[in-house]
Amino acid sequence: MTIEFRLNGRAATVTASPWRRLLDVLREDLGFTGTKEGCGEGECGACTVLIDGEAVNSCLVAAGQVSGREVTTIEGLGGDALHAVQDALVRFGGTQCGICTPGIALTAARILAREPDADRARIRELCAGNICRCTGYQLIVDAIIDAAGHIKSEEP
Ligand code: FES
Ligand code: FES
After folding, report:
1. One digit per residue, pLDDT tens: the chain, 156 residues?
2. How far apart (Å, rounded) are the C-alpha atoms in residues 131 and 74?
3. What's the CA angle centered on 54, arms 132 and 62, to 5 degrees?
4. 57: Cβ below 6 Å to ligand 1?
5. Which ligand is nearest to the CA of 56?
6. Angle of helix 138-154 versus helix 84-92 axis, rounded to 10
7. pTM of the full structure
8. Is the CB of 103 inside a 6 Å radius of any atom of ligand 1?
9. Which ligand sits closest to the CA of 22?
10. Nearest protein CA to atom 3 of ligand 2, as residue
């Protein structure tokens, strides 16, 4: 099946079984290896991408389901520059081994787009599907709050 969708703001076409995991299409067929695989069963969030702006686990999405939709991976999150949340994760040390980081950055971007005033408790709640075995989450949440402040300060 030929699957046409938009990937990081550009038209994308791939020939694959509609049942193939989106995670595998992104990484293996299209070379977007920024999307990571952890558990492979919807528990860890390492494979998070945005589909039409919503954070989803790409290991649980069949490729055919993204036909005609907009997919954003970590490679496309900030355009030509780092997204504010990527920049903050680096500055705050909210990333260590990095396996969880793309998924957390995409989840955080979704939070900041939809709930820019989310407080620390709400951010922790919304990030609950993204497991990090390294940082202890404190620095991740600090980074997301800092990024929210930067985004607001740049709004007209
Ligand atoms: Fe998809 Fe863990 S690899 S949720
Ligand atoms: Fe290693 Fe999060 S930085 S799992």
Report:
1. 999 999 999 999 999 999 999 999 999 999 999 999 999 999 999 999 999 999 999 999 999 999 999 999 999 999 889 999 999 999 999 999 999 999 999 999 999 999 999 999 999 999 999 999 999 999 999 999 999 999 989 887
2. 17
3. 85
4. yes
5. 1
6. 140
7. 0.96
8. no
9. 1
10. 96
